[in-house]
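Structure (tokenized):
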């Protein structure tokens, strides 16, 4: 008489151990901050990244979620150094806007003279007019530097945020 090969038995305890060993669903779908930092800039823009969190600073793009066609809206970028870091007052901080078919802005570039704030917080504000219905991105590049007593970081970061125009 031949025996069928033995199959491992699934027990409740074994299933629970397997379940607990799996990473959380969010870890399977979203790249970690370390993985996102290694992506090329074009790939990072495609993910719709509206904020950058680093140990030395926090950078964010803010805009309303929804606006109506013909309506003007404001968007802003905020830079907050973290820990012992401060905004480098000698570096030419700037923001450059990428044009879109869904909205228009009378200004494409902002410099230090357009920024408000101090060594602990800097913000830029811009205005745009909604032109076409749909989901349209606000894309921009921010160049800045933050320093501690022993090092300065010079950064160029791309931010992207979608606005629903109704």
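Design, position by position:
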């Amino acid at each position: 008489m031949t025996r069928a090969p033995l199959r491992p038995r699934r027990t409740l305890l074994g299933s629970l151990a397997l379940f607990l060993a799996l990473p959380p669903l969010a870890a399977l779908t979203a790249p970690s901050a370390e993985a996102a930092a290694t992506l090329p800039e074009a790939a990072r823009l495609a993910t719709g990244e509206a904020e950058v969190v680093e140990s030395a600073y926090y950078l964010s793009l803010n805009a309303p979620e929804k606006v109506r066609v013909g309506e003007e809206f404001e968007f802003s970028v905020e830079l907050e150094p973290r820990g012992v870091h401060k905004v480098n007052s000698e570096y030419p901080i700037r923001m450059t806007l990428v044009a879109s078919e869904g909205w228009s802005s009378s200004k494409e570039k902002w410099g230090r003279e357009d920024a408000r704030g101090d060594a602990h917080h800097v913000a830029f504000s811009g205005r745009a007019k909604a032109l076409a219905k749909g989901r349209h991105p606000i894309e921009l590049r921010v160049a800045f530097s933050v320093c501690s007593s022993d090092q300065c970081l010079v950064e160029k970061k791309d931010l992207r945020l979608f606005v629903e125009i109704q």
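Reviewer-requested clarification: The mean pLDDT is 80. The two ends are 74 Å apart (CA to CA).
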